[in-house]
Specification:
Blueprint lengths: L8 H4 L4 H4 L19 H7 L5 H17 L6
Amino acid sequence: GFGLVDLEAADIVDQFPELFALKGECRFQNCLHKQEPGCAVRRAVEEDRIPATRYASYLEMLADLDEESPYRVG
């Protein structure tokens, strides 16, 4: 298995196929799908094409990674 510390923030979206499918449509290649302008993922959530609960899970994983990052080694 792996923990969140094994993932980079940009890789978390890869764990959500419906979000991953849209990431190439974002204005910025390094979009984290939080507050960046031109985000295709956030637009899909706003248009009810992606369940808000899935997007919330993604944001929660990002937040968990942010909390763990000071303890990362390497």
